[in-house]
Hints:
The chain is of the alpha/beta class. 40% of the residues lie in helices and 15% in strands.
Amino acid sequence: xxxxxxxxxxxxxxxxxxxxxxxxxxxxxxxxxxxxxxxxxxxxxxxxxxxxxxxxxxxxxxxxxxxxxxxxxxxxxxxxxxxxxxxxxxxxxxxxxxxxxxxxxxxxxxxxxxxxxxxxxxxxxxxxxxxxxxxxxxxxxxxxxxxxxxxxxxxxxxxxxxxxxxxxxxxxxxxxxxxxxxxxxxxxxxxxxxxxxxxxxxxxxxxxxxxxxxxxxxxxxxxxxxxxxxxxxxxxxxxxxxxxxxxxxxxxxxxxxxxxxxxxxxxxxxxxxxxxxxxxxxxxxxxxxxxxx
Length: 293
Ligand SMILES: NC(=O)c1ccc[n+]([C@@H]2O[C@H](COP(=O)([O-])OP(=O)(O)OC[C@H]3O[C@@H](n4cnc5c(N)ncnc54)[C@H](OP(=O)(O)O)[C@@H]3O)[C@@H](O)[C@H]2O)c1
């Protein structure tokens, strides 16, 4: 393959958590031809605009970090969610297939119904419980239908240094409340956005085989476990009370269990998947969250 560091890489949704993390990760690796476009700069539902960007930039890789991600609101804003996650993805996937670009798409663990009690593999059938998950599953179908070179990655429970993600929300709650409540009846796979960016970087350099891959940190956690770990690592002392998720009266149902198996990437590449607690420990130290309180 050509030098991957000079490859033209379009990053959509570049203002979001994963978009910003991937951009900053690749920039630090000295990629020289990155085009990060925020929602304002490229609305993926505007097909004409998508085509225009492909014509002018001619990306060799497209990393699609754009999505409608408000899981609860999606139950009430189905049209907007569908338009972005399904039609927007289809616009990009078709343009990428037409241009011969490699399309890297992000899906979600919420394509699963959570009835299993052992990690979900890429072979397990999707059966989403909520509308957001349904559109993420349809987005995968659009990528496959477009017929181009693609990677579909399913991460889960992503946290990182940008935006209003779970990690930042816990720190905010800890500032505002004396006691924190966290769901203890949903078990999933936390994903450090930095590790996800590193996996995307790995795929770009290896360039095959294309297909569907699960990626999250290793191990499993409930939201309660995550809250406790975030507080412990950042040195904040607060009482945390485990509650059922129904306590928060969410609009969207979520899988009770959505741990992702990483066996495929481990077998294929011997890919080293960091444990979630260790990864969070490194994240907290690296970005100074342990010194901010
Ligand atoms: N966060 C998680 O826990 C999680 C878990 C599993 C999978 N994922 C997937 O990972 C991907 C990245 O998510 P994230 O956590 O980075 O979410 P995020 O922080 O909400 O980022 C999504 C970005 O997409 C942008 N966007 C929305 N509509 C758009 C449109 N029509 N055209 C272009 N951009 C648009 C948003 O911009 P505005 O905010 O300006 O609208 C936002 O910057 C998504 O595919 C998501 O489904 C996330």
